Amino acid sequence: MTDPQRKLSTAELAEAGLSGWSLTGDALTATFRTRKFSTGLEFVNRIGASADEANHHPDLTLTYPEVSVTLSSHDVGGITSRDVDLARTISGHASDLGVAAAE
Prior knowledge:
Blueprint: H1 10-16, E1 22-24, E2 27-33, H2 37-54, E3 59-63, E4 66-71, H3 81-97, E5 100-101
């Protein structure tokens, strides 16, 4: 699962064990319940910094009281290891902020 240009199979995504993330079409999606707008904004800022560092940018929606995230590698038309890596990073930010993914 290391080639960042290779689209991952459904089985590979299941093996990745991304808790709180769902496969929606050709994208990984998750909604995080931030409970406060200020927490959501901090979360989005952390995601933005990590995305810039990885040169891989998710679609984000910040509302009260949640942040929705969609990850997909548009250049390959699906999910790659870049998406899985960024999903793990985003989940780490959520954990650090005490934010839970909606089930």
